Amino acid sequence: ELTKISKKNGLKLVVDNTFTPMIFSPHLLGADVVIHSLTKFINGKNDCVGGVICSSDEFIDSLIDVHSGTAMLLGPVLDTLRSSSIRKNLFTLHIRMKKHSENAMYLAKKMKEKGLRVRYPGLPDHSQHKTFKKMMNKDYGFGGILTLDMETIDNAGKLMTTMQDDGVGYLAVSLGYFKTLFSNSGTSTSSEVPIETQKEMGLSPGLIRMSIGLDQDIEMTWNKIENCLNKI
């Protein structure tokens, strides 16, 4: 639908595919420009800050035009060392995305079975599950991001602190790392949004965003999470 609207009105459709590299191919679905934060899943190590713009040769050439190109004038160019490092990590991206998705699905199902308020697009009761399935590249799963609603900031804080102390992962606002990361959205990535607006958006004060890591023994990870839940 967005593609139809943009084409009809002579606009470029820009899609941020940071959360779902390999899983979605926006350019095949009609996007004119696709952007990624290289810092997240693509690099996978949280050791650099970078981004990328993918589009037609004509559009990219306009960005780097020596006289009027935005990229040329503002100078957002990665150094060669970081560029080389990220390029090397691209060779394992397809393997990593499969594992992120596999682990996230496992944990989402376990949380659901326990009666927790979990949201993950791979679960059939997710409002966008069917839409996601129609657009996804099926070999790579439903992604590595899920949310767990602990209802209150206090509960969320206690659980995240306990999970970090017990070795589940790290309390951090990034994502796409090989270790599991978690943060309370209302007090971190959405902290600039007024409380009343957060309520209107349906953003629970106890919402935890989890970027699921590449743990080989995901059953052990779940056991740790379950123990943490029991402690609070």
TrEMBL record:
The keyword Magnesium does not apply. InterPro entries: Cys/Met-Metab_PyrdxlP-dep_enz, PyrdxlP-dep_Trfase, PyrdxlP-dep_Trfase_major, PyrdxlP-dep_Trfase_small. Keywords: Pyridoxal phosphate. Its cofactor is pyridoxal 5'-phosphate. One of its GO terms (molecular function) is pyridoxal phosphate binding. GO terms for biological process: transsulfuration. GO terms for cellular component: cytoplasm. Pfam families: Cys_Met_Meta_PP. PANTHER family: CYSTATHIONINE GAMMA-LYASE, TRANS-SULFURATION ENZYME FAMILY MEMBER. This is Cystathionine beta-lyase. It comes from marine sediment metagenome.
